[in-house]
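step 3/5: co-fold with nicotinamide-adenine-dinucleotide
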Amino acid sequence: MRALVKQKAEPGLWLSDEPKPEIGPKDVLIRVRRTGVCGTDLHIYNWDDWASKTVPVPMIVGHEYAGEVVETGAAVDTVKVGQRVSGEGHVIGMHSRAARAGRFHLDPETQGVGVNIPGAFAEYVRIPAFNVVALPDDIDDEIGAVLDPLGNAVHTALSFDMVGEDVLITGAGPIGIMSAAVARHVGARHIVITDINPTRLKLAAEVTSVVPVNTAEEDLHDVMAKLGMREGFDVGLEMSGIPAALDQMLDHMVVGGRIAILGIPSKPAPLDLNKIIFRQFTVKGIYGREMFETWHKMLAMLQSGLDIRKVITHRLPAAEFETAFQVMRAGECGKVVLEW
Ligand code: NAD
Ligand code: ZN
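step 4/5: write tokens
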């Protein structure tokens, strides 16, 4: 089968011919149709510090996908051949206290599809039947391929009650924009999204009704004044991984504000804890999404009017993966989807 592989411990990815995965009794084999390219894949492509420490080579990469079940293991009775599916990219163990209590997303033995175990940038991917999420008929493969990052956005955005609240989102990458669409869907009042990339801010405003703010040019206090906000944002979603953006968020929240952090800084960065203590913020770290409550909620929201289609700006055949990584590196895109 064709697959996109990290073959060598150096920058780059290679499209190569790999053996079709063999499945165990509790696994399913999926014929992949569409895949989303994630920032994580770009880290692996670039072979940065995180990637070289985390990813064993060779490794088939990719973890955002939709396709069709073509084979099921002998012990699988929950999934049928022919079913259109996506899947949770975190494969867990069942040994930890958290997992055994049903808090699957907190399992410390988690392994990442396309990071620690063979991934979905391929014609076929094998995953445990436990991880399979069936796609309703009205969710097509293209949207199915971006449910993984949408799940990050939904899990982060639903961390705190947003009904009637003023929300600050730092970072208008695909996940920041999707979280803005979720905030709008669930009933937030003002949604301000910041970035320093005009292309991304323009896209955010096309996807949903937000106030886009280029913080390289505009002061957030001025924006708040224009919106008639006196005290600050009630809820903050950090979606950039840039420490300066988090610091700016801390300076524009109400006393008692609630902050969820998804963005991953590339290296340890100083944080003024006094800002959190004296302003009595609640801060929550987010990794992945909840198995499988986030999946349920995002599918239900997509079926009740949440529209994130415009976040997908590029659709390319898998063979043109170099172009995909190029536009992502330049930040000149929303979500990039590859066809297999
Ligand atoms: P992305 O890199 O496409 O988006 C980040 C955005 O932040 C970019 O548009 C960038 O221009 C913007 N930015 C840069 N400096 C800024 C500043 N000073 N203020 C505001 N914005 C600024 O990433 P993405 O795919 O949308 O993912 C968002 C973040 O979440 C990334 O850091 C990613 O690594 C992380 N992530 C975390 C998880 C998790 O489970 N915790 C999962 C997926 C992604
Ligand atoms: Zn991803």
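step 5/5: annotate
DSSP finds twelve helices and 18 strands in the chain.
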